[in-house]
Amino acid sequence: MFDFIHYQVRDVMTPNPVTVRPTSRLREVEAIFSDNDFNGLPVLDEENHLIGMVTKLDLLKAFIFTEVCKVPPYLVIMERSVSSVMNPELDTVDPEMPLTRVLGLMVKTRFKSLPVMDEGVLVGIVAREDVLKALARAAEGLLPDRLQQ
């Protein structure tokens, strides 16, 4: 398990993640989630700056029943824009951050995935599953690929 301290975000992240725009429709997000089983998607503006994340939970929140709307109109809601449900408050990580810190951040924030930024540019995404795989590899005594000889 000691080998886990050698793991960094870059060792496990998914590079070049699928992204959406704030103007993307919720139906598009739902289709991406369905096809890929992602937990969340980074939201980029027209200049490709990271401005938020949209998660499966955000999508579900769009359907909350209210006193005004007892039965949310599915097709109408699915035409709403990502900007109407996305979370603009972000925690990001950099490629060289130790996974020990990422693990702590994920536990503290309960985020299932975090955008990976390098010098202000989105370069990847790291998910809980990535951290769990690294823990399992470390338990087997395996170092990150970049450190193996």
Describe, in plain words, how this protein is organized in 3D:
With 149 residues, the chain is α+β, with helices and mostly antiparallel strands. The chain has one domain (2-147): CBS-domain (Roll). Helices cover 33% and strands 17% of the residues. It is built from 6 helices and 5 strands; from the N terminus they run H-E-H-E-E-H-H-H-E-E-H. It has helices spanning 9-12, 26-36, 56-61, 74-78, 99-109, 128-139, and strands at 14-15, 40-44, 50-55, 113-118, 121-127. The strands form 2 sheets. The chain has a 3-stranded antiparallel β-sheet. The protein has a two-stranded antiparallel sheet with strand order 2-3.
Strand order of the largest sheet: 1-5-4
- Overall outline: elongated
Overall mean pLDDT stands at 93
The assigned structural class equals: alpha+beta
Low-confidence stretches: none
Biggest beta-sheet profile: 3 strands, antiparallel
Distance between the termini: 19 Å
The H-level CATH homologous superfamily, spelled out, is CBS-domain
The residue fraction in helices comes out at 25-40%
CATH architecture group name: Roll
Briefly note the CATH topology name: CBS-domain
The strand count comes to: 5
Q: Rg from C-alpha positions?
A: 17 Å
The overall number of domains is 1
What's the level 1 CATH class?
Answer: Alpha Beta
Element-by-element helix/strand order: HEHEEHHHEEH
Strand content: 15-25%
Helical segment count:
6
